[in-house]
Amino acid sequence: MDPKNVKSDLVLILDYGSQYTHLITRRIRSLSVFSLCISGTSSLATITDLNPSVVILSGGPHSVHTPDSPSFPDGFLPWARSHGVAVLGICYGLQLLVQRLDGEVCVGHKQEYGRMEICVEKPSALFPSGKVGKRQVVWMSHGDEAVMLPDGFHVVARSDQGAVAAIENPSAKLYGLQYHPEVTHTEEGMETLRHFLFDVCGVKAGWNMEDVMEEEIKVINDTVGPDEHVICALSGGVDSTVAATLVHKAIGSRLHCVFVDNGLLRYKERERVMETFEKDLHLPVVCVDAVDQFLTKLKGVTDPETKRKIIGKEFICIFDAFAQELESKMGKKPAYLVQGTLYPDVIESCPPPGSGRTHSHTIKSHHNVGGLPKDMKLKLIEPLKLLFKDEVRQLGKFLDVPEAFLKRHPFPGPGLAVRVLGDVTEGNALDVLRQVDEIFIQSIKDAGLYDSIWQAFAVFLPVRSVGVQGDQRTHSHVVALRAVTSQDGMTADWYYFEHKFLDDVSRKICNGVRGVNRVVQDITSKPPSTIEWE
């Protein structure tokens, strides 16, 4: 997807490493405005080539006082002013604006973290007149503060402690918020963003999945030659299925789908997924049994990053072999591999190619991104890599993917390898986990809770506990249950089950799964944890 072809003004976010940066992107897209996130130290040419209508400077963990603190390129602010591009600095972004324009930023006497109240002091562009004198709860996360503003700026809101909370210079189209409007803890944050984009900046909305579908089909047809063939790696999840359906719509029978049973699938996943592909989606799919190949490579491996990279490499080996088989049948070897990589996969795994992003930490290597071998022979097609999960589901509706399939909970590419902590081949860990997970998920469905939960699963822990079962002492496995709610998988809250439900599930597991005598629940949000355990 070429951002220049999107039928919407572009709001460009320069990323300085805040854990909330992705939320800015997501919140803006929810307003039907296209938004992209690139490195805060990108070149001026990179920024100008994207032709943004608005640029947002994100927050970050840095101080503008440190010598190596990241900043936008020289010439950026003059370019923005000469082209009428509005700039909004958030948290560190506000301080960066102040510092680069010869204002003063100092270490705050009282650092502000968490929920705080601010008061709007005067009529301004950022806050409509009705907000003057009104208080609102916002989310702060800063140690430094602006103490002297550059020429042309004035303070329009302060915190209860007297710190600058919002500044602006409307004639130069420069604005700053010391707090984070993108997080849900800022109660009027979405209203502030909506007002800023539409009323202050005059941004035109137009971001929708129907246009995305048409644009992606065009890109696929322009990329894949009229006689070329494509392989698609189907996992049975929403992402790869929507990607396959999209490519199939573009090139038809030249798409060849392969589903790999790597021994890391859920209970009866192979049978259920293949039936869905054939009956509901009518996709041409070949199933490859590679259980022994994967488990042999994973034997003795306990490090989660190593497991991910091994799995990524083995997948590619299978796809290469599948391509050679097709070549012997058709006389032409497929040149491309389709994957259902999403925007969060790219953000959490590693910097996007050519982005130069250096201020966000790698959270995990997604097997589609960080786990791919450098000598891979197939060229990648990733039609969803700029989309979030909920956007992929919307796209799936336009492609007539059955709603029941689109509502399936996410399942990680490395499968149960990241839900068995430690060596996946040790003992009967995989079989135990499959049974526990099936009981948990089926109980959720029976209780009518499945569609209210973003993702639910069980985890096999590398510990044993003492128990009493059948009047005998046992020393058996411990499993954890995890269920979260989320909009896009980038942040999540743990799901609150009724105690009766948890009691019933625990009894079913301990009575129905041999070798388990203790069940615990994960009640950690993201952040600080990730959704998956590895």
UniProtKB/TrEMBL annotation:
- Copy the pathway line from the protein's UniProt record: Purine metabolism; GMP biosynthesis; GMP from XMP (L-Gln route): step 1/1
Transmembrane stretches, by residue range? none
> What keywords sit in the KW lines?
ATP-binding, Glutamine amidotransferase, GMP biosynthesis, Ligase, Nucleotide-binding, Purine biosynthesis
* UniProt-listed InterPro entries: Class_I_gatase-like, GATASE, GMP_synth_C, GMP_synth_GATase, GMP_synthase, GMPS_ATP_PPase_dom, Rossmann-like_a/b/a_fold
A GO molecular function annotation here is: ATP binding
Cite the Pfam families for this sequence: GATase, GMP_synt_C, tRNA_Me_trans
Is the keyword ATP-binding assigned to this protein? yes
Keyword ATP-binding attributed:
yes
Q: Which reaction does it catalyse?
A: XMP + L-glutamine + ATP + H2O = GMP + L-glutamate + AMP + diphosphate + 2 H(+)
Q: Which PROSITE patterns match?
A: GATASE_TYPE_1, GMPS_ATP_PPASE
Name the enzyme's class.
ligase
Q: Look up the EC number in the record and give it.
A: 6.3.5.2
Extract the SUPFAM superfamilies matched here: Adenine nucleotide alpha hydrolases-like, Class I glutamine amidotransferase-like, GMP synthetase C-terminal dimerisation domain
One GO cellular component, as annotated: cytosol
The residues that hold ATP are S235, G236, G237, V238, D239, S240, T241
Q: Which residues form the GMPS ATP-PPase domain?
A: 207-408
Q: In UniProt terms, what function does this protein have?
A: Catalyzes the conversion of xanthine monophosphate (XMP) to GMP in the presence of glutamine and ATP through an adenyl-XMP intermediate.
In its UniProt entry, what is this protein called?
GMP synthase [glutamine-hydrolyzing]
List the source organism.
Phaseolus vulgaris (Kidney bean)
